[in-house]
């Protein structure tokens, strides 16, 4: 493995750093979504009942990391004792949770874009190194040096593509989870709004 890394040339170092960053962010996102796996309809309905009935007392409570609960807490802070602008307060509160859902998205997009480009740079450098050993009309070409440059070109390109593909798979998976939880959030926020409106 070490010999392959060395064969990839100088661009393997930034690719190695990018892969570490990508893996770290992926593990953080897996941990975040894993904690939300047990959220069920019963617990969400309980939150709606609790925060719609205990509106003034609930503003300073934070009992869990469930996104819906964070939204309801923020909504109650906005509304305070007035229930007339529930829809407006919910829209603001839902927007406050989006950065939590979208964390590292821009970083993932950058890694997916830049990894193949760095690999391509390694390809160019490797081919330049190979061509530097070629001399027209000279039969005494050092084949090891020429093939070494080509090897550098191929390894760096493959590494860049592997990092980009691996990151893209998880990026799309996290996006699907974000859409799913946003849908759940909007559904239960709508139920909360109906529950509040019935009491006005």
The unreliable regions are none
- Amino-to-carboxy terminus distance: 68 Å
How many independent structural domains? Answer: 1
* Biggest sheet overview: none
Calculate the mean pLDDT score and round it.
83
Form type: rod-shaped
Radius of gyration: 27 Å
H-E order:
HHHHHHH
Number of strands: 0
Number of helices: 7
The chain-level structural class is mainly alpha
Helix content: over 70%
Percent strand equals: under 5%
Give keywords:
single chain, mainly alpha, 200 residues, 0% strand, rod-shaped
Task: Write a structural description.
The chain is built from seven helices and no strands. It has one domain (2-33, 40-132, 140-199). Helix 5 (86-101) runs antiparallel to helix 7 (143-199). The longest helix is centred in the C-terminal third of the chain and has 57 residues, at 143-199. 78% of the residues lie in helices and 0% in strands.
Question: Which secondary structure elements does this structure contain, and how are they paired or packed?
Answer:
Blueprint: H1 2-7, H2 12-35, H3 41-53, H4 67-79, H5 86-101, H6 105-131, H7 143-199
Helix pairs in contact: 2-6, 2-7, 3-4, 3-7, 4-5, 4-7, 5-7, 6-7
Write a brief caption for the model:
By secondary structure, the protein is an all-alpha fold. Helix content is 78%, strand content 0%.
């Amino acid at each position: 493995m070490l010999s392959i890394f060395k064969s990839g040339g100088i661009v393997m170092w930034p690719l190695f750093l990018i892969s570490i960053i990508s893996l770290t962010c992926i593990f953080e996102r897996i941990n975040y979504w894993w904690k939300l796996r047990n959220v069920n309809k019963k617990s969400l309905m309980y939150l709606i009942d609790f925060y719609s009935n205990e509106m003034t007392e609930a503003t300073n409570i934070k009992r869990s990391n469930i996104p819906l609960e964070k939204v309801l807490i923020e909504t109650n802070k906005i509304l305070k004792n007035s229930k007339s602008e529930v829809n407006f307060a919910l829209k603001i509160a839902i927007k406050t949770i989006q950065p939590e859902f979208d964390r590292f998205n821009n970083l993932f997009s950058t890694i997916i874009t830049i990894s193949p480009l760095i690999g391509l740079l390694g390809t160019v450098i490797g081919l330049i190194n190979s061509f530097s050993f070629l001399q027209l009309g000279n039969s005494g070409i050092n084949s090891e040096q020429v093939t070494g440059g080509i090897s550098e070109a191929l390894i760096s390109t493959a590494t860049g593509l592997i990092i980009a593909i691996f990151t893209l798979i998880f990026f799309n998976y996290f996006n699907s989870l974000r859409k799913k939880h946003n849908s759940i959030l909007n559904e239960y926020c709508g139920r909360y709004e109906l529950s509040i409106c019935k009491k006005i």
